[in-house]
Specification:
The chain is an alpha/beta fold. The protein has helices at about 45-55, 75-85, 85-90, 100-120, 130-145, 165-170, 190-195, 220-230, 250, 260-265, 320-355, 375-385, 385-395, 425-445, 445-450, 460-465; strands at about 120-125, 155-160, 175-180, 200-205, 230-235, 255-260, 280, 295, 300-305, 360, 370-375, 405, 415.
Length: about 475
């Protein structure tokens, strides 16, 4: 495919610049470039070039995107339109609060809604992504222990099946990471946890449902063990899409929670737009939340600061447009709708899982939640076809690959999350694709080894790509 510069031809124009009708302002010569090489192309060339580029990308609007633990669900276009209303997109963060009461009401209403959904007492909308929220939540935990004089609480316990951002965020926040093993049911091993907690425990970070798509049924006992040791319980909200409207982290015993508005509440994810990772907490930690927070006094919203706050974690008040979309999603569905979304996400995952268990191994015989993990180790032993081969072959079938080789406690893992926005017809097609690839692995393994065979970009050298990335054409 040609670059936009290769389409360039001297004299081609996409716009006609009209003569000035006002006095020309002379910029300082030090601010000007001597030469600015831009392509000279017509409007139709530009339209066709970028349309062709867009066709080379794959997103949830193109087809099935079962990326486990990332909740790549369809984003309702209604909420995109709401966020572009002039009252939301034409304001400036430096305006006085007198002129932004409507937008402040949005932030306040969303905060209240998220507290209700999670069982928390306070929330900040500042963090710009999930990992940013993790870091913020861990800073809250550190501030809480420091204010109590518990400076020796320097360790964060993380399950061996945790998202990789958990130990990374804890390390960035200055904590030491301690891994706790999983038991035979792939939940936290309670005996191991009891051995690890102590007066140096700051918190346990936990995802519930876990990264294996299983609900941690011992959560109340886990909460008791951690709290009796003086630690706090941190909720990684990456998998809230399975339980929103059904059970609340705060009722499970969690003290701090981060959410991913760009996942759970259907706002753009990844290259589709900015993220948002709000952090909620119990009342004992509210005073440590980032400044400022919003309060309503005498019928007017205003920004208020706390002297014990951990400080700001981003400029201004977070990614406002994402917050607008998330609130629109919550208000559109309502409490019953959020619950139904969770139920459908769980139903879809179990439907796919049940229709693949006869040919692929799963880690447990329990019902899964919103996602499930297949182990292709047996298939690899029998045919030489790896999970990577199968995932790459899915591209040829116009399906985005699921998460590969995670969690690491599962060999040759593929993690699927179909989400609630997919219908039965799509799931049946995806199931048939996986069954066809299973058969292909036994009859024409070389074809899977070379996949993708029909994509614009073939399979790269994974090691070379990681060590010597070429990020421009």
């Amino acid at each position: 495919m040609k670059t936009i510069f290769e389409h360039s031809k001297v004299g081609n124009l996409a716009v006609t610049i009209r003569p000035l009708t006002v006095n020309e302002y002379k910029l300082d010569a030090n601010l000007l470039r001597d030469n600015l090489p831009l392509p000279e192309v017509s409007e139709v060339d530009i339209a066709r070039h970028y349309t062709a580029l867009s066709k080379r990308a794959f997103g949830v609007d193109d087809g099935f995107y079962p990326l486990g633990s990332c909740t790549m669900k369809y984003n309702p276009k209604l909420h995109e339109e709401i966020a572009t209303l002039s009252g939301f997109c034409n304001i400036h963060p430096l305006q006085s609060s007198d002129t932004t009461q409507g937008s402040m009401a949005v932030l306040s209403t969303l905060s209240t809604s998220l507290c209700e959904i999670t069982g928390m007492d306070g929330v900040t909308l500042q963090p710009c992504a999930g990992a940013h929220g993790e870091y913020t939540g861990l800073m809250l935990i550190g501030a809480y222990h420091s204010a109590r004089g518990d400076f020796h609480r320097t360790k964060i316990i993380v399950p061996d099946s945790a998202h990789g951002t958990n130990p990374a965020s804890a390390s960035m926040a200055g904590f030491e990471i301690i891994a706790v093993k999983s038991n035979e049911e792939k939940g936290v091993d309670l005996d191991e946890l009891r051995k690890l907690v102590g007066d140096d425990t700051a918190a346990l970070m936990l995802t519930n449902p876990t990264t294996l798509g299983l609900f941690e049924k011992n959560i109340e006992e886990i909460s008791k063990i951690v709290h009796e040791a003086g630690g706090l319980l941190y909720y990684d909200g990456a998998n809230l899409n399975a339980v929103m409207g059904i059970v609340r982290p705060g009722d499970m015993g969690f003290d701090v929670v981060h959410l991913n508005l760009h996942k759970t509440f259907a706002t753009p994810h990844g290259a589709g737009g900015p993220g948002s990772g709000p952090v909620g907490c119990k009342k004992e930690l509210i005073k440590f939340l980032p400044n400022p927070h919003i309060e309503k006094n005498d019928g007017k919203y205003e920004f208020v600061n706390s002297e014990e706050s951990i400080g700001k974690v981003t400029k201004f008040y977070g990614n406002f447009g994402v917050c607008v979309k998330a609130l629109a999603y919550i208000l559109t569905l309502g409490g019953n709708g959020l619950k139904e979304a969770s139920e459908n996400a769980v139903l879809n995952a179990n439907y796919m899982n049940a229709n693949l268990q006869d040919i692929f191994d799963t880690e447990t015989n329990r019902f899964c939640m919103h996602e499930f993990v297949l182990s292709l180790q047996k298939l690899k032993d029998e045919t030489g076809v790896s999970a990577m081969d199968v995932a790459k072959s899915m591209i040829d079938k116009h399906m985005h690959p699921p998460t590969m080789y995670f969690p690491m406690i599962v060999h040759e893992a593929l993690m699927f999350e179909p989400t609630e926005t997919e219908n039965k017809e799509t799931l049946d097609e995806a199931i048939q694709v996986m069954r066809d690839l299973f058969d292909d692995a036994h009859t024409k393994p070389e074809y899977l080894h070379s996949a993708p065979n029909n994509a614009v970009i073939k399979r790269p050298d994974e090691v070379r790509a990681a060590r010597n990335p070429i990020v421009k054409m």
